[in-house]
């Protein structure tokens, strides 16, 4: 039986750009657009030409996309102006986009209050704008803003807006839950009613996540009849975000209710690039990936309970609703005091450490992990530190260097301009394996740990080339016991700007600087180990 086609419309570069703190450059947009094209989406909405220089430049270029249609976003013409005399609409029409998506008011309340025009003027401007896009030889999509709220308040007018767009030649009439307040059962019901007026093959859905229902609303809209789906990678967007395509796409492909009926431009082979696409966006945004994100998060297929770990090894489908590899992710059986030998063995196997299942060293490693966790260590979030520990007990890890001593000074003083500042300075004395002469390094930072990090990475002799791109990107401290002699656990996240790899290391000590330094040492040693750096 042939499957019905669903069309994916990604708005990361336009809707996603409205996220607080997000500001894409032209190069950022080129990179993300290429990733989306490779993933297999049908449309990439590149921005709003005429609204800012970045979008104008980006959409003024000939699209380099191989299969997806580069789409420009804009507004229907203003009342009282002709199409040719509306600068905003002309900027969109002048772009080199393959398709155009225009937003229109579909709630009579917003037509009256926001636009200050009559319902008839709004419909007339919509029809003229759609015809202008069609005459330019490009597909036209119409975002019916506030459609669901408008429909509930004045059903006939909202339907008139959708019908006008369709009859004027719009390829897609997109129903928008603009404030994110509509619930799933309402979406399915209303979409079903709209399909009696406009064919579902021309209907789309655009939801926001203000009630944490954007993904559910999108799926219910598909059930209701829409065949065009809008959303953003990782669900970024204004306020609480947009419908998360990173969750929607694998649900459509891997869950039988949808997979048996529909197909998309994202094939099963391309779906394996999903986790990579998600991480690329986070890298461009310079933010940490959401470890608990469905399908693509590092913890999406992770467990630390021993009984669950054993079951997963025997029957993965018991605790995994899809296979991690289907979305480009991987299983993580976390090492912790709640885990058992199965967790240790599974992790060792994944790390590629050669060891037999009956090797007594595995039991010793498990005992060591539990002993360490009893004094404050935690390896479930610091896999790099665990790999170092495991390889030191089961395999071979060279001794690349040793720290003979370090000193950290924090001084509050007046600078040359007379401003009171606090300065941190660290001095580290290191012996590189095979060298008799020590290396002294000094680093300054905005705190003692930052200064230590800079000093440690400033000069490691022949190993320096391996750590040139390494930087500390996150630093978390947890006080494990109270009082003045509290034990501190430090979790450090490191990032290699050259390879894009990230890893976590842990340190524990009553002294926060000692704990921090232990985590920093693990981070550097882990990087050297992964690079197969040659010890003397």
List the topology elements.
Layout: E1 4-5, E2 7-10, H1 26-39, E3 43-47, H2 53-60, E4 69-75, H3 87-93, E5 99-105, H4 108-115, H5 119-135, E6 139-145, H6 147-153, H7 155-168, E7 172-177, H8 184-194, E8 203-207, H9 214-224, E9 228-231, H10 245-254, H11 256-259, E10 262-263, H12 268-271, H13 274-285, E11 302-303, H14 306-314, E12 332-333, H15 341-351, H16 360-374, H17 383-394, E13 401-414, E14 420-432, E15 439-445, H18 448-458, E16 470-479, E17 488-496, E18 502-509, H19 512-530
Parallel strand pairs: 1-10, 2-3, 2-9, 3-4, 4-5, 5-6, 6-7, 7-8, 8-9, 11-12
Antiparallel strand pairs: 13-14, 14-15, 16-17, 17-18
Helix pairs in contact: 1-13, 5-7, 6-7, 8-9, 14-15, 16-17, 17-19, 18-19
Low-confidence stretches: none
Tally of domains? 3
* Number of H- or I-type helical stretches: 19
Q: Which structural class do you get from the secondary structure elements? A: alpha/beta
Helix proportion:
25-40%
* CATH homologous superfamily assignment of the largest domain: Aldolase class I
Shape: elongated
Largest sheet: 8 strands, parallel, barrel
And the CATH topology of the largest domain? TIM Barrel
Could you name the CATH class of the largest domain?
Answer: Alpha Beta
Strand arrangement, major sheet? 2-3-4-5-6-7-8-9
The N- and C-terminal alpha carbons lie at a distance of 65 Å
CATH architecture name of the largest domain: Alpha-Beta Barrel
DSSP strand content: 15-25%
Would you tell me the overall average pLDDT? Answer: 91
Task: Please provide the count of β strands.
Answer: 18
Radius of gyration: 28 Å
